[in-house]
């Protein structure tokens, strides 16, 4: 495998959404000064040789159309594991992956995207459309009761430092006292971090009139957010995919908004063992 320094990986399936993801990668690579790797996953080694010419032609086309020559790699395995494994091995900067948000099929496409996201601690930028601008001026930061929200702090700093972003914190509205207490704790933690790093932000509260995941999307559209920053469900289980973890809807949202999603650190119990179950 070619040695690249913290590349931006674009999972490549020769589709239009993959090309849209490449356009995002080109814009971000200019800011971060990173190389781009097109990564194609096949199920059998016999498929590698026939696909080499095709992905090579894609690389040439991307260079001609967007002015950035990508590297490319073909690996065998399942997309739900291979993408994350390659990204971890290469210490990738991020993975920019295209997906669909077709009306009525958000759960299906969101589930597939989420299964890829949870395969690695490398951040994923999930996109549907071509980029509207080069960077992320305004980022929506939804905060609910889950403890893993606090892990967003380092990524807030990363995005603010590299893109000069300002943040809108959208606080979930909860009736339960215990949930309200946890939400407030998360807000205080994030707000202290933002103030300490001189990051511009404002805090707003959801109305509670519809599910928080739907309010996130409508709020992001109303306030012209360029990106939504979320964490995947910690220690996600098969039942979460069936019931529909909130981030499934967000990743394949009907407004086609870009979403950056990270896989949180696993929960641990005394003795250092990983705790089972969701958040």
What do you see in this structure?
The protein is 41% helix and 19% strand. It has 279 residues and is an alpha/beta fold. It folds into two domains: 8-98, Rossmann fold, CATH 3.40.50.620; 138-262, HUPs (Rossmann fold). The protein has a ten-stranded mixed beta sheet, with helices on both faces. The longest helix is centred in the C-terminal third of the chain and has 20 residues, at 177-196. The chain starts with 7 loop residues before the first strand and ends in a 17-residue tail after the last strand.
The number of E-state strands comes to: 10
Q: What average pLDDT do the residues reach? A: 86
For the terminal residues, how far apart are their CA atoms?
36 Å
CATH superfamily of the largest domain, please?
HUPs
Named at the architecture level, the CATH assignment of the largest domain is: 3-Layer(aba) Sandwich
Largest sheet: 10 strands, mixed
Percent helix, as a range, is 40-55%
Radius of gyration: 19 Å
Q: Decide which structural class fits the backbone.
A: alpha/beta
List the helices and strands and how they pair.
Blueprint lengths: L7 E4 L4 H17 L3 E7 L5 H19 L4 E6 L2 H11 L4 E5 L7 H12 L6 E4 L10 E6 L8 H12 L2 E6 L5 H20 L4 E5 L6 H11 L4 E5 L6 H6 L2 H6 L7 E4 L17
Parallel strand pairs: 1-2, 1-4, 2-3, 4-5, 6-7, 6-9, 7-8, 9-10
Antiparallel strand pairs: 5-10
Provide a concise account of the structure shown.
With 279 residues, the protein is of the alpha/beta class. The chain has helices spanning 16-32, 48-66, 79-89, 106-117, 152-163, 177-196, 212-222, 238-243, 246-251, and strands at residues 8-11, 36-42, 71-76, 94-98, 124-127, 138-143, 166-171, 201-205, 227-231, 259-262.
């Amino acid at each position: 495998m070619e040695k690249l320094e913290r590349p931006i990986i674009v999972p490549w399936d020769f589709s239009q959404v993959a090309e849209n993801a490449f356009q995002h990668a080109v814009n971000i690579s200019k800011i971060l000064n990173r190389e781009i790797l097109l990564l194609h996953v096949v199920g059998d080694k016999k498929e590698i040789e026939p696909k080499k010419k095709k992905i090579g032609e894609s690389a040439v086309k991307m260079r001609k159309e967007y002015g950035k020559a990508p590297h490319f790699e073909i690996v065998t395995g399942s997309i739900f594991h291979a993408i994350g494994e390659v990204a971890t091995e290469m210490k990738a900067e991020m993975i920019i992956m295209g997906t669909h948000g077709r009306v009525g099929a958000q759960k299906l496409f969101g589930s597939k995207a989420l299964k890829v996201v949870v395969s690695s601690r490398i951040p994923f930028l999930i996109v549907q459309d071509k980029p509207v601008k080069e960077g992320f001026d305004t980022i929506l930061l939804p905060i609910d009761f889950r403890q893993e929200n606090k892990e967003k702090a380092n990524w807030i700093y990363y995005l603010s430092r590299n893109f000069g972003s300002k943040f809108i914190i959208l606080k979930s509205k909860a009736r339960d006292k215990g949930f309200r207490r946890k939400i407030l704790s998360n807000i205080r933690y994030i707000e202290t971090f933002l103030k300490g790093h001189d990051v511009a932000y404002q805090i707003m509260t959801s109305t509670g009139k519809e599910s928080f995941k739907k309010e996130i999307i409508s709020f992001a559209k109303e306030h012209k957010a360029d990106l939504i920053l979320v964490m995947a469900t910690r220690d996600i289980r098969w039942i979460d995919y069936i019931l529909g973890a909130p981030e499934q809807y967000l990743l394949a949202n009907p407004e086609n908004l870009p979403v950056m999603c990270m896989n949180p650190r696993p929960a641990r119990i005394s003795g250092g063992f990983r705790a089972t179950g969701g958040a």
